[in-house]
């Protein structure tokens, strides 16, 4: 059943504004009574994702609204702004920021969002910081005596989590549509298991699907033998070893023809690599270099060589603002600084905001090897 974007959120907030505190079961019952069939896992996923930004856990399985979040309130954090070269870093929840920003004020979006959702809940982030596996995090096998950092495994997401994922990106897509100019490129990192859900929700929001950019990179996902039966089935891999990372490419619908849009809004296509070489949708890449990880120890840090190629192409005339609504450690902002673009990053986690303030200038100053175009 199709629901208006934000209807589950509004129902939860409205109920807790009146009830003050309630169990997950009580919240689900109230929302289901108002909206009809809603999976309990959808309620659980939404609340976990927005704790502690909007909700506060009072006891096991019991929640209330945080102070200052009455009925109809958004989830905006107290905004703080920092200026890092040509980049502006904002400590805020991006959904609230996108609702309040000037319409049609952004010329491109390049972002790596929490597309698994669960990996950025408070509990899962704590597991990550302790280097623990379990739940959504998988600890890869050691290599050359070195223990590797946990990786998210999205096969653990159930139907309710997929529904929450759809609602998340549907609302995100609508807000991005409001914030961007006609013809703006919207480039969203994803993975082979969830890219179709991200693309479907954001096109439903009104953006145009323009394909994918394939980052050719060997990852640690897939290729494993059956768990607890690897000796019995030594010649079987449960899933193919992942050798690429898809970035979903969308566009704010054009205002007239491409040439009209370029003249009026300065966007509507991709900046060429050179006069005789167009920007391509397959980019050879490597895992993020150890040196960059030391500067910015973020769990999903992308390499500057790749990000600079992507950010450079996102503004066809080199004119405008690149937005990263899920700025993390600020690697996209650093890439924008390196190629000379203005950018805005929004990040709600104070740990990553603090990190970004330190690392953006350092990452931007790195000399990286150019990626040979395919």
From TrEMBL:
Signal peptide: none annotated. It comes from the Bacteria. SUPFAM superfamilies: S-adenosyl-L-methionine-dependent methyltransferases. Its EC number is 2.1.1.-. Transmembrane segments: none annotated. InterPro entries: DNA_methylase_N4/N6 (IPR002941), DNA_methylase_N6_adenine_CS (IPR002052), RM_Methyltransferase (IPR001091), SAM-dependent_MTases_sf (IPR029063). GO terms for cellular component: cytoplasm. It holds the Pfam family N6_N4_Mtase. It catalyses: a 2'-deoxyadenosine in DNA + S-adenosyl-L-methionine = an N(6)-methyl-2'-deoxyadenosine in DNA + S-adenosyl-L-homocysteine + H(+). Keywords: Methyltransferase, Transferase. GO terms for biological process: methylation. Residues 275-356 form the DNA methylase N-4/N-6 domain. GO terms for molecular function: DNA binding; N-methyltransferase activity; site-specific DNA-methyltransferase (adenine-specific) activity. Belongs to the N(4)/N(6)-methyltransferase family. PANTHER family: RNA METHYLASE-RELATED (PTHR13370), TRNA (GUANINE(10)-N2)-METHYLTRANSFERASE HOMOLOG (PTHR13370:SF3). This is Methyltransferase. It comes from Mesorhizobium metallidurans STM 2683.
């Amino acid at each position: 059943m199709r629901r208006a974007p934000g209807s589950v959120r509004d129902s939860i907030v409205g109920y807790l504004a009146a009830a003050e505190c309630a169990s997950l079961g009580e919240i689900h019952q109230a929302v289901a009574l108002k909206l009809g069939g809603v999976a309990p896992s959808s309620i659980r996923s939404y609340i976990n994702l927005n704790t502690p930004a909007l909700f506060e856990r009072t006891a096991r399985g019991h929640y209330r609204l945080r102070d200052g979040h009455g009925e109809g309130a958004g989830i905006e954090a107290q905004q703080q702004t920092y200026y890092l070269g040509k980049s502006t870093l904002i400590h805020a929840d991006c959904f609230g920021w996108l609702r309040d920003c000037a319409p049609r004020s952004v010329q491109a979006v390049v972002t790596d969002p929490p597309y698994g959702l669960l990996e950025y809940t408070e509990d899962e982030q704590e597991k990550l910081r302790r280097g623990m596996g379990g739940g959504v995090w998988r600890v890869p096998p050691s290599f050359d005596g070195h223990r590797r950092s946990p990786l998210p495994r999205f096969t653990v997401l159930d139907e309710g989590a997929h529904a929450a994922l759809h609602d998340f990106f549907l609302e995100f897509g609508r807000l991005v549509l409001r914030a961007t100019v006609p013809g703006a490129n919207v480039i969203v990192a994803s993975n082979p298991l969830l890219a179709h859900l991200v693309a479907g929700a954001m096109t439903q929001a009104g953006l145009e699907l323009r394909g994918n950019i394939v980052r050719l990179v060997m990852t640690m996902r897939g290729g494993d033998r059956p768990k607890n039966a690897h000796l019995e089935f030594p010649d079987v891999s449960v899933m193919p070893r992942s050798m690429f990372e898809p970035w979903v490419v969308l566009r704010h619908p054009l205002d007239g023809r491409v040439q009209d849009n370029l003249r009026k809004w300065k966007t509507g296509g991709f900046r060429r690599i050179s006069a005789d070489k167009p920007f391509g949708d397959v980019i050879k890449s490597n895992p993020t270099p150890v040196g960059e990880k030391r500067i910015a120890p973020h769990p999903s840090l992308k390499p500057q060589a790749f990000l600079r190629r992507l950010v450079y192409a996102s503004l066809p005339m080199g004119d405008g603002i690149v937005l990263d609504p899920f700025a993390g450690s600020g690697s996209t902002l650093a890439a924008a600084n390196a190629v000379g673009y203005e950018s805005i990053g929004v990040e709600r986690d104070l740990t990553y905001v603090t990190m970004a303030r330190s690392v953006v200038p350092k990452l931007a100053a790195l000399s990286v090897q150019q990626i040979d175009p395919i």
